Amino acid sequence: MPTPHNEAKLGEIAETVIMPGDPLRAKYIAENFLENARLVNKVRGMYAYTGTYKGKTISVMAHGMGIPSIGIYCYELYKFYNVQNIIRIGSCGGYKPELKLFDIILSEKVFSESNFALTLNNDDCHIVEANYELNDIIEKTAEKNNINIIKGNTVTTDCFDIYMTDVNEFLKRLPENFNPVSAEMEAFALFYIAKMLNKKASCLMSVVDSKYIKEVATPEEREQGLNNMIKLALESSCS
Fold first, then answer.
1. Does the domain spanning 16-237 belong to CATH 3.40.50.1580?
2. Can 103 be counted among the known catalytic residues?
């Protein structure tokens, strides 16, 4: 049954969904990695496609930017479309000097100052973990395919961290010893809703900026870096 934000019929979305933020990236994945992909949602331009990858039915759907946006889409996928697994793939800012452009990060715990959990579920929660089983599959798949990943904690912010008046003041408010390796804007809502509904969620991110990185990537380098992350998500979905 369609929802206010998704016109797909029940059965048109697979149990495993790969979720980039950008609708055009969802289109890119469908056209370049899936076989027999068909568009099943275009409401608000938030494209969703279902096709096969190495014989397994997989969906890819955009989630937009920020906690409120991904919160709507992942809730509806889990609650109304029988989705069991969501792997978010996105970009992030690197918080460690050793990180390089397009390093792939696998989130373990996520912290947010947002009151998302309190508003949604009357739960004063600000730290939530990825699903261990799904993360373990991704880690083993990365090793099998010789794709290097970095595991660590992530902060989910309510605004683009580059635009913060003073990011150091934000970092002072983090829980002791949280020690984030990256920052992004969506994973907290995804992980929290997965936990609330007894589903599975993971988040893979590609480093695209950092105060420690001075070089600028070419379009070809950017595409190849993102392709490695996309391949890892898809290969993990088949494991």
1. yes
2. no
